[in-house]
Write a structure and sequence with these properties.
This protein has six helices and no strands. The protein is mainly α. Helix 2 packs across helix 3. The longest helix is centred in the C-terminal third of the chain and has 20 residues. The radius of gyration is 15 Å and the shape is globular. The relative contact order is 0.16.
């Protein structure tokens, strides 16, 4: 489920900004199937967002909150390229 956003996406928006401007903690929690208390902890930086949850949050926010903003310590550029290569290899194997 994608959450509604304004027509212009602001790049570099953190989770706290996104939730204060666009949606509630409960809406995002429901969209990514986690407890609202967990999203609140991420919002208030009392608990870091697990790297594995970042792509789900990015998709749920239509890219308004990017993985790079949630976890700048992770090399997302490398992971994105690696993921694309894996998808292409998988499609080639299926076609063969």
């Amino acid at each position: 489920m994608l959450l509604p956003i304004a027509s212009a996406i602001v790049l570099g928006m953190d989770l706290k900004q996104y939730l204060s401007k666009r949606n509630s903690v409960i809406d995002l929690a429901s969209a990514i199937d986690v407890a609202p208390s967990l999203v609140s902890q991420w919002k208030n930086a009392t608990r870091p967002v697990p790297a594995a949850r970042c792509p789900t949050i990015e998709r749920a926010t239509n890219g308004a909150v990017r993985c790079e903003d949630l976890r700048p310590d992770v090399d997302w550029a490398y992971l994105r390229v690696t993921s694309m290569v894996n998808v292409e290899n998988s499609q080639e194997m299926k076609a063969a």
